[in-house]
Amino acid sequence: MTDRTKKLREYDKNFIWHPFTQMKEYEKKEPIVIEEAEGVYLFDTEGRKYIDGVSSLWVNIHGHKVPEIDRAIKEQVEKLGHSTLLGITNPAAAELAKELIEICPTGLKKVFYSGDGASAVEVAIKMAFQYWQHKGKPKKTKFVSLENGYHGDTLGAVSLGGIDIFHATFKPLLFETYKAPSYYCYRCPLGQTYPSCEVACAGEVEKILSEHHNEIAAVIFEPYVQAAGGMIVSPPGYLEQVRGCCDKYDVLMILDEVATGFGRTGKMFACEHEGVTPDIMVLGKGMTGGYLPLSATIVTQEIYDAFLGEYEEFKTFFHGHSYAGNPISCAAGLGNLEAFRNYNTLEELEEKIEFLEQELREFKGLKHVGDVRNKGFMVGIELVEDRETKKPYPVKMKMGWKVAELAMEEEVLIRPLGNVIVVMPPIGISMEDLKKLLTVTYRAIKKTTES
Ligand code: PMP
């Protein structure tokens, strides 16, 4: 180990508290220190290179060091680092908003910028809530969200969340929501099987709405993939059915596309798979191609208009973050969309998804793989102790982690969600690197679970 790596590790351990990390365990480890990247490869200070198998936590889109994004950021830095969006504007924020509306599902018209996914979810919650106040239906204050859902770590977002290990501690701080079952086919909470179920999980949302719509502001969920919940993939038709219920009962539909947006599921946005336009769409993560924090809450004209009024009416949306519409982040966002165009990213992706799905079939033959699921480039491989009974591995065995650690020895970075191995590389990855990523993952699963 070089002296430099040693020194950096020491600083890190002395001064950083890492997110979602048990620091007692972390302190015993020698973390890798990533300092450079190229394409889908990350390089550490020891000269080792790793495939970025989870897109640096689901943010990276085209790979690292994308010329379009690099250039956009450099040009912006030369001109302006930051200026507020409160009451004035900047070119990058205006241009990106225009481009986003052009690619968003028809009907979405206005972009409200924030920094992280969770902040953009908070914005969606507050907008939906305030919208009904302005519409003269002040009793519509509650939200419907899903079991296994995840929307970020701020308290509003946690209130909507449905992952007990992350969320239970904070229960006394949270507002109550109606929880609909997860669209988890492998472990159907309704004990049914697709397609004979006729997507009964969507029917459960309808049941809640039919009884309580007078007090419900919005339904929120992740379209097609409950990502942090374990890469759970919805059956087709779910989105459309829930859209129909929201219309029927006059309830807003909020789609959290923070993880699914920007090509990850094979289309620019997951809701496009069913031609659905939400009333509010939340974007983050891949918005800057994985370079800088930037998120957006995008709404229909109808919602925007409800907030218009005279100054003294206080219909204003009183919410905003210091770095909203940051020009450098927005420039990265523009560079990201330029790269989509230059590399025909979405068109090229179709063939890669076919290849990925073909390769994933192999995993089903592994003795301890219970379920292999994907929507586009979002892949979950669920490990089980017993395939017949679907008995999960006990948490204490840390099976997912063991697989990831073995893969790391072979220079592939993946990060599990409990017993679910997540594979989610940049969508710009080459077939060759994708093959390597899957081969190492397969070997790591086999070796960990079968020996
Ligand atoms: N929504 C979804 C669907 C997410 O997957 C995440 C992050 N994993 C968030 C919201 C929160 O985003 P952030 O971490 O940027 O706050």
Features:
Aspartate Aminotransferase, domain 1; alpha/beta; 451 residues; seven-stranded mixed sheet; binds 4'-deoxy-4'-aminopyridoxal-5'-phosphate; 17% strand; 2 domains; Aspartate Aminotransferase, domain 2; four-stranded mixed sheet
Task: Output the structural class.
Answer: alpha/beta
CATH fold label of the largest domain: Aspartate Aminotransferase, domain 2
Identify the overall geometry: globular
Within CATH, the superfamily of the largest domain carries the name Type I PLP-dependent aspartate aminotransferase-like (Major domain)
Strands, count: 17
Rg calc: 22 Å
Q: Give the count of structural domains.
A: 2
What ligand molecules are bound, each kind once? 4'-deoxy-4'-aminopyridoxal-5'-phosphate
Q: What's the mean pLDDT score? A: 97
As laid out across the biggest beta sheet, the strand order is: 4-12-11-10-7-5-6
Under the CATH scheme, which class of the largest domain? Alpha Beta
Q: β content, as a range?
A: 15-25%
CATH architecture of the largest domain: 3-Layer(aba) Sandwich
Count of individual helical segments: 15
Q: Can you tell me the residue ranges where pLDDT is under 50 for at least 5 consecutive residues?
A: none
Main sheet?
Answer: 7 strands, mixed
- N- and C-termini, Cα separation: 31 Å
- Helical percent range? 25-40%
Give an account of the 3D structure.
The protein contains 15 helices and 17 strands. By secondary structure, the protein is α/β, with parallel strands linked by helices. The chain folds into 2 domains: 32-62 and 344-450, Aspartate Aminotransferase, domain 1; 69-342, 3-Layer(aba) Sandwich (Aspartate Aminotransferase, domain 2). The strands form 4 sheets. It has a 7-stranded mixed β-sheet with strand order 4-12-11-10-7-5-6, with helices on both faces. Helix 5 packs across helix 12 and helix 14 (399-409) crosses helix 15. The longest helix is centred in the C-terminal third of the chain and has 20 residues, at 431-450. 4'-deoxy-4'-aminopyridoxal-5'-phosphate is lined by residues 116-118, 121, 150-152, 222, 227-228, 256, 258-259, 284.
